[in-house]
Design brief:
3-stranded antiparallel beta sheet, single chain, two-stranded antiparallel sheet, alpha+beta, 3 helices
């Protein structure tokens, strides 16, 4: 059974979910390597495409499920105040 990690969701404070730790860690590293350090940041669709080359193929074959995992890690990191959204739409992410 794969190791699990607890993640938060900025949209539902106080609630957490357990997800695959290896996939989370791989996506965390990939996202932190592509996100800019300041606003306005990157559009989520651009983040999804930018992280694909950095993801291990054994966890994300052909980038499969990377969109879901970007959103999962995004919401967790926003809750932990590691990344933020720009103030104006569309949603753009950047490191704090």
């Amino acid at each position: 059974m794969p190791e699990k990690i607890e993640v938060q969701n900025v949209n539902t404070p106080g609630k957490s979910t357990r997800v695959d730790a290896a996939k989370y860690r791989a996506m965390y590293v990939a996202m932190m390597s592509v996100l800019p350090d300041q606003a306005p940041g990157m559009k989520v669709a651009d983040v999804i495409e930018a992280v694909k080359p950095a993801l291990p193929d054994d966890l994300y074959p052909g980038g499969k499920t990377s969109g879901w995992w970007v959103k999962c890690v995004q919401l967790d990191l926003e809750a932990k105040k590691t990344i933020a959204r720009a103030d104006k739409p569309p949603v753009r992410l950047y490191k704090i």
